[in-house]
Request: fold
Amino acid sequence: MGGSLVVTLIRHGQTEPNERSQYLGWEDVSLSKKGLLTIRSLAEKDYPEGMLYVCSDLKRCQETFSILYKDKIDVVHVTKGWREINFGDWELQTYEELKHQMSYRNWLDDRYRVTPPNGESTLLFEKRMLTAWQMLIEMAQVKGTNELVIVTHGGPIQWFMSIAVPDEKAFFEWKPLYGEGYQIITTFERVKEGRPCISYQEVPFRGKANG
Reply:
């Protein structure tokens, strides 16, 4: 397929804040014991050549990558661009701890007009993600590769899938599990024109593709 593009997005393994249902954005924490066990069970056995590997710079993603693709640590592109949204003062707090704050309730009602205190607005997050995606496409074209692997966070994967498959699900309906994610098949032309991907499937692969 001329100009084809395959993008695999994988969510990092579980952390202790994840297990406690705490908001976790830019806080830099490691994988939990449970998270490590899960990622080790999913570790890749083969390492395809000619692929572009990208990873969020936060520990939980780098640790996940080092287990899944241990032979590619020297070639992975580590970047802040694929970080989770910054929850500011709400980092490491739970819904139960925040639900009585008016600003938090307003944020739940309208995430585009309300920003977490000292955090990142939804608009800035989406702008950052779009810039990171565009830079990645340019990098792929320069390197002459059409296969990308991105180890990142839940929010960036939700954002990506909501623009890659816009008519399938809304942002919060995409629910990548820890250590899992999605693979899309598209083309450079479709990306340039802002058109939906050709197909997608879950990772680890569970058979027939959707879309």
The radius of gyration is 17 Å. The CA atoms of residues 134 and 192 lie 9 Å apart. The longest strand covers residues 4-11.
